[in-house]
Design goal:
This protein has 244 residues and is of the alpha+beta class. It contains seven helices and eight strands, in the order βββββααααβββααα. The protein is elongated.
Amino acid sequence: MIKTEGIVIGETRYKETSKILNIYTNNLGKISVMAQGALKPKSQFLATTQMFSHSDFQLRKGRSFYYIVQVDLIDSFYAIRENIDRVSFGFYMLELLNKSVADGEVNEKLFMLFKKGLSTLTNLDDEYLKFIVAYELKYVCFLGYRPLIDRCVSCGNSLNTALKFSKTLGGLLCSNCYMEDIGALNVDVNQVNVLNKLLYSSFEDIKSMRIMNDLLKDIHYLLVDYILYNIDRKELKSMNLLKI
Protein backbone atom coordinates (compact mmCIF):
# COMPACT_ATOMS: atom_id res chain seq x y z
CA MET A 1 0.00 0.00 0.00
CA ILE A 2 1.32 3.43 -0.98
CA LYS A 3 0.23 6.56 0.90
CA THR A 4 0.43 9.98 -0.70
CA GLU A 5 -1.11 13.44 -0.61
CA GLY A 6 -2.23 14.69 -4.00
CA ILE A 7 -4.23 17.14 -6.10
CA VAL A 8 -6.17 16.19 -9.24
CA ILE A 9 -4.72 18.12 -12.19
CA GLY A 10 -6.24 16.22 -15.10
CA GLU A 11 -8.82 13.58 -15.97
CA THR A 12 -9.75 11.31 -18.88
CA ARG A 13 -12.89 9.22 -19.12
CA TYR A 14 -12.17 5.48 -19.23
CA LYS A 15 -14.90 3.19 -20.53
CA GLU A 16 -18.37 3.90 -19.13
CA THR A 17 -17.85 4.51 -15.44
CA SER A 18 -14.16 5.07 -14.69
CA LYS A 19 -11.57 7.84 -14.93
CA ILE A 20 -7.84 8.01 -15.45
CA LEU A 21 -6.60 10.84 -13.28
CA ASN A 22 -3.42 12.89 -13.41
CA ILE A 23 -2.55 13.61 -9.80
CA TYR A 24 0.29 15.77 -8.54
CA THR A 25 1.61 14.38 -5.26
CA ASN A 26 4.02 15.39 -2.55
CA ASN A 27 6.16 12.24 -2.63
CA LEU A 28 5.55 10.55 -6.01
CA GLY A 29 5.47 13.56 -8.31
CA LYS A 30 2.95 13.52 -11.15
CA ILE A 31 1.27 10.13 -11.52
CA SER A 32 -1.55 8.44 -13.47
CA VAL A 33 -4.25 6.90 -11.30
CA MET A 34 -7.17 4.67 -12.28
CA ALA A 35 -10.35 5.60 -10.42
CA GLN A 36 -12.60 2.64 -11.08
CA GLY A 37 -16.31 3.43 -10.98
CA ALA A 38 -15.69 7.13 -10.28
CA LEU A 39 -18.42 8.17 -12.75
CA LYS A 40 -21.14 6.11 -11.11
CA PRO A 41 -23.76 8.36 -9.45
CA LYS A 42 -23.18 6.84 -6.01
CA SER A 43 -19.43 6.31 -6.32
CA GLN A 44 -17.39 6.81 -3.16
CA PHE A 45 -14.81 8.53 -5.38
CA LEU A 46 -17.20 11.10 -6.87
CA ALA A 47 -16.04 14.15 -4.86
CA THR A 48 -12.39 13.18 -4.55
CA THR A 49 -11.80 12.74 -8.30
CA GLN A 50 -12.95 16.21 -9.38
CA MET A 51 -10.47 18.70 -10.84
CA PHE A 52 -8.53 20.60 -8.14
CA SER A 53 -9.61 18.15 -5.41
CA HIS A 54 -6.95 17.71 -2.72
CA SER A 55 -6.93 14.39 -0.85
CA ASP A 56 -4.99 11.79 1.07
CA PHE A 57 -4.69 8.66 -1.07
CA GLN A 58 -3.91 5.03 -0.42
CA LEU A 59 -2.84 3.48 -3.71
CA ARG A 60 -1.92 0.15 -5.21
CA LYS A 61 0.64 0.14 -8.02
CA GLY A 62 -0.28 -1.73 -11.20
CA ARG A 63 1.53 -2.18 -14.50
CA SER A 64 0.32 1.01 -16.17
CA PHE A 65 -1.45 2.91 -13.40
CA TYR A 66 -1.82 3.35 -9.71
CA TYR A 67 -5.22 2.24 -8.41
CA ILE A 68 -7.18 3.94 -5.64
CA VAL A 69 -7.74 1.74 -2.61
CA GLN A 70 -8.94 4.48 -0.27
CA VAL A 71 -9.14 8.25 -0.45
CA ASP A 72 -10.00 10.94 2.10
CA LEU A 73 -10.87 14.44 0.91
CA ILE A 74 -8.87 17.29 2.45
CA ASP A 75 -10.23 20.19 0.39
CA SER A 76 -12.28 20.22 -2.81
CA PHE A 77 -11.30 23.85 -3.60
CA TYR A 78 -14.88 24.04 -4.82
CA ALA A 79 -14.92 27.85 -4.74
CA ILE A 80 -12.48 27.87 -7.68
CA ARG A 81 -15.12 26.21 -9.87
CA GLU A 82 -17.84 28.66 -8.74
CA ASN A 83 -16.29 31.73 -10.37
CA ILE A 84 -15.23 32.15 -14.01
CA ASP A 85 -12.14 34.21 -13.14
CA ARG A 86 -10.98 31.80 -10.45
CA VAL A 87 -11.49 28.79 -12.70
CA SER A 88 -9.60 30.49 -15.56
CA PHE A 89 -6.58 31.22 -13.38
CA GLY A 90 -6.89 27.77 -11.82
CA PHE A 91 -6.70 26.04 -15.19
CA TYR A 92 -3.74 28.24 -16.08
CA MET A 93 -1.97 26.93 -12.97
CA LEU A 94 -2.86 23.36 -13.96
CA GLU A 95 -1.51 23.77 -17.49
CA LEU A 96 1.68 25.37 -16.21
CA LEU A 97 2.23 22.40 -13.91
CA ASN A 98 1.35 19.78 -16.51
CA LYS A 99 3.71 21.28 -19.09
CA SER A 100 6.67 21.91 -16.81
CA VAL A 101 6.85 18.84 -14.57
CA ALA A 102 7.72 15.36 -15.86
CA ASP A 103 5.92 12.25 -14.62
CA GLY A 104 7.42 10.94 -11.39
CA GLU A 105 9.50 14.07 -10.78
CA VAL A 106 9.27 14.78 -7.04
CA ASN A 107 9.47 18.41 -5.90
CA GLU A 108 7.92 18.86 -2.47
CA LYS A 109 8.47 22.64 -2.42
CA LEU A 110 6.65 22.98 -5.74
CA PHE A 111 3.81 20.82 -4.44
CA MET A 112 3.47 23.01 -1.35
CA LEU A 113 3.46 26.16 -3.51
CA PHE A 114 0.81 24.69 -5.81
CA LYS A 115 -1.36 23.74 -2.84
CA LYS A 116 -0.93 27.17 -1.24
CA GLY A 117 -1.63 28.85 -4.57
CA LEU A 118 -4.95 27.02 -4.99
CA SER A 119 -5.90 27.84 -1.42
CA THR A 120 -5.15 31.52 -2.01
CA LEU A 121 -7.05 31.55 -5.31
CA THR A 122 -10.09 30.04 -3.58
CA ASN A 123 -10.44 33.17 -1.45
CA LEU A 124 -9.83 35.78 -4.16
CA ASP A 125 -12.54 38.01 -5.59
CA ASP A 126 -10.28 40.49 -7.37
CA GLU A 127 -6.62 41.38 -7.99
CA TYR A 128 -6.04 38.06 -9.73
CA LEU A 129 -3.18 39.48 -11.78
CA LYS A 130 -1.16 40.43 -8.70
CA PHE A 131 -1.62 36.93 -7.33
CA ILE A 132 -0.68 35.13 -10.54
CA VAL A 133 2.45 37.25 -11.09
CA ALA A 134 3.62 36.40 -7.56
CA TYR A 135 2.77 32.75 -8.18
CA GLU A 136 4.65 32.65 -11.50
CA LEU A 137 7.76 34.15 -9.93
CA LYS A 138 7.78 31.75 -6.98
CA TYR A 139 6.91 28.85 -9.30
CA VAL A 140 9.82 29.37 -11.67
CA CYS A 141 12.16 29.64 -8.67
CA PHE A 142 10.99 26.33 -7.18
CA LEU A 143 11.17 24.78 -10.63
CA GLY A 144 14.91 25.46 -10.49
CA TYR A 145 15.24 28.56 -12.69
CA ARG A 146 15.40 31.36 -10.16
CA PRO A 147 16.27 34.60 -12.00
CA LEU A 148 19.03 36.79 -10.63
CA ILE A 149 17.34 40.12 -9.91
CA ASP A 150 19.51 41.77 -7.26
CA ARG A 151 22.73 42.15 -9.29
CA CYS A 152 24.00 41.74 -12.84
CA VAL A 153 23.83 38.12 -13.97
CA SER A 154 26.92 38.60 -16.13
CA CYS A 155 29.45 40.64 -14.13
CA GLY A 156 27.92 40.38 -10.65
CA ASN A 157 28.04 44.12 -10.05
CA SER A 158 25.24 46.11 -8.42
CA LEU A 159 22.57 47.39 -10.77
CA ASN A 160 22.09 50.89 -12.15
CA THR A 161 18.95 52.50 -13.54
CA ALA A 162 19.48 51.19 -17.09
CA LEU A 163 18.58 47.50 -17.07
CA LYS A 164 17.70 44.60 -19.33
CA PHE A 165 16.36 41.13 -18.51
CA SER A 166 17.97 38.16 -20.25
CA LYS A 167 15.92 34.97 -20.35
CA THR A 168 18.85 33.05 -21.82
CA LEU A 169 21.27 34.10 -19.06
CA GLY A 170 18.63 34.00 -16.34
CA GLY A 171 18.56 37.47 -14.88
CA LEU A 172 19.23 41.19 -15.12
CA LEU A 173 22.01 42.80 -17.11
CA CYS A 174 23.59 46.12 -16.17
CA SER A 175 24.35 48.77 -18.79
CA ASN A 176 27.94 47.53 -19.10
CA CYS A 177 26.81 44.03 -20.07
CA TYR A 178 23.95 44.67 -22.51
CA MET A 179 25.81 43.06 -25.39
CA GLU A 180 25.98 39.73 -23.57
CA ASP A 181 22.44 39.16 -24.89
CA ILE A 182 21.21 41.38 -27.71
CA GLY A 183 17.71 39.91 -27.30
CA ALA A 184 17.37 40.97 -23.66
CA LEU A 185 14.25 42.96 -22.77
CA ASN A 186 14.21 46.46 -21.32
CA VAL A 187 13.04 46.67 -17.71
CA ASP A 188 12.91 49.57 -15.29
CA VAL A 189 13.67 50.03 -11.61
CA ASN A 190 9.98 49.86 -10.67
CA GLN A 191 9.64 46.42 -12.23
CA VAL A 192 12.76 45.20 -10.45
CA ASN A 193 11.51 46.52 -7.11
CA VAL A 194 8.16 44.76 -7.57
CA LEU A 195 9.88 41.50 -8.52
CA ASN A 196 11.95 41.59 -5.34
CA LYS A 197 8.93 42.42 -3.16
CA LEU A 198 6.83 39.62 -4.64
CA LEU A 199 9.63 37.09 -4.43
CA TYR A 200 10.24 37.57 -0.72
CA SER A 201 6.64 38.12 0.43
CA SER A 202 3.96 35.60 1.35
CA PHE A 203 0.66 35.49 -0.52
CA GLU A 204 -0.98 36.94 2.61
CA ASP A 205 1.36 39.95 2.64
CA ILE A 206 1.02 40.45 -1.11
CA LYS A 207 -2.73 41.04 -0.74
CA SER A 208 -2.13 44.40 0.93
CA MET A 209 0.43 45.63 -1.62
CA ARG A 210 -0.66 48.33 -4.04
CA ILE A 211 0.88 47.79 -7.47
CA MET A 212 -0.20 49.44 -10.71
CA ASN A 213 -1.95 47.08 -13.11
CA ASP A 214 0.14 48.11 -16.13
CA LEU A 215 3.29 47.33 -14.17
CA LEU A 216 1.95 43.89 -13.25
CA LYS A 217 1.04 43.18 -16.88
CA ASP A 218 4.58 43.94 -18.04
CA ILE A 219 6.05 41.68 -15.36
CA HIS A 220 3.53 38.93 -16.16
CA TYR A 221 4.51 38.82 -19.84
CA LEU A 222 8.21 38.93 -18.93
CA LEU A 223 7.81 35.98 -16.55
CA VAL A 224 5.73 33.95 -18.99
CA ASP A 225 8.39 34.44 -21.66
CA TYR A 226 11.06 33.36 -19.17
CA ILE A 227 9.09 30.31 -18.05
CA LEU A 228 8.32 29.17 -21.60
CA TYR A 229 11.99 29.46 -22.54
CA ASN A 230 13.08 27.31 -19.60
CA ILE A 231 10.43 24.61 -20.02
CA ASP A 232 10.95 24.58 -23.80
CA ARG A 233 7.35 25.38 -24.71
CA LYS A 234 5.94 27.80 -27.26
CA GLU A 235 2.74 28.74 -25.46
CA LEU A 236 0.31 28.13 -22.63
CA LYS A 237 -3.11 27.95 -24.27
CA SER A 238 -5.00 28.72 -21.07
CA MET A 239 -3.48 32.22 -21.08
CA ASN A 240 -6.16 33.11 -23.64
CA LEU A 241 -8.77 32.66 -20.90
CA LEU A 242 -7.17 35.08 -18.46
CA LYS A 243 -8.76 38.49 -18.01
CA ILE A 244 -5.82 40.72 -17.25
